[in-house]
Amino acid sequence: MSANILTSKCVLVTGATAGIGRALAREIRDLPTHPTVIVTGRRQARLDELAKEGFETVKFDMDTTPDKIKAFADEVVGKYPKLDAIILNAAIQNMVNFAEPEKVDLSKISREFNINYLAVVSMMTAFLPHLIKIGNERPALLIPVTSDLSMIPLAPVCNYSATKAALHSLIFSLRIQMENAKTNVHVLEIIPPLVESELHDAEGRTETVSKYWMPLAEFTSTVMDGLKEGKIAITAGWATATYDRFEKPKEGFRNGMMNVDMQN
């Protein structure tokens, strides 16, 4: 059964209090199918604003432990049993320069790795039993957000690039596992280029990168087209050229890997 965002009845978007997450949440809310949209984030004031727009809101910080993520998933599923699509968008980005090792803050590296990768893996693991069950009735969507830096890293944000590369690699295998197990869980991946966002504010780089980023409205429109189509890799801007050159050739190998049973 084909799956796309138009088949979804209830959608959860993490990291939705700003930027890409908020823009996508608004577009999904306004679909003609009128799905319920649940948004999460750390900032209560932003969540209160979104609640006034008709969103369901849950305050949650991704920088936490797997047991708390599991408790969060159980709470969400208990309250929203029709949940059938999850967009995992929350992330942070820090600069790090290993040429000056005495200035490297390992606590920041650890936090970035946890939010961008480990917490996302925990979130997927916690929600998959529910999504697999929903898949017995209708298609379910699991949609992590990575980055074009997962394919070609950028040295100043090398740890961020590494976290997204790890997630990008995992998604490739996760999709195969879901298909081999004949679930009705469809794993899509949103792969942004540099996009207009508050992501860069923490390092004071907004003024510099704003000269090069893709406008948020243009990016959101492109991604929504991909979500409606149900594309497994939803790219935009120069991320599309990068994906087509370095990642698209892997799709042929993917078809072969689907027939590999590692237990034999």
From TrEMBL:
* Keyword annotations of the record: NADP, Oxidoreductase
Instruction: Tell me the InterPro entries matching this sequence.
Output: NAD(P)-bd_dom_sf (IPR036291), Sc_DH/Rdtase_CS (IPR020904), SDR_fam (IPR002347)
Q: Name one Pfam family in it.
A: adh_short
Cross-referenced Gene3D superfamilies, in alphabetical order? Answer: NAD(P)-binding Rossmann-like Domain
* Keyword Lipid biosynthesis (UniProt): no
Could you cite one Gene Ontology molecular function of this protein? oxidoreductase activity
Which parts pass through the membrane?
none
Superkingdom of this protein's organism: Eukaryota
Asked if the Swiss-Prot or TrEMBL record annotates the protein with the keyword Transferase, the reply is no
Family stated for the protein in its record: Belongs to the short-chain dehydrogenases/reductases (SDR) family.
Name it.
NAD(P)-binding protein
Q: Please report the organism this UniProt entry assigns to the protein.
A: Schizophyllum amplum
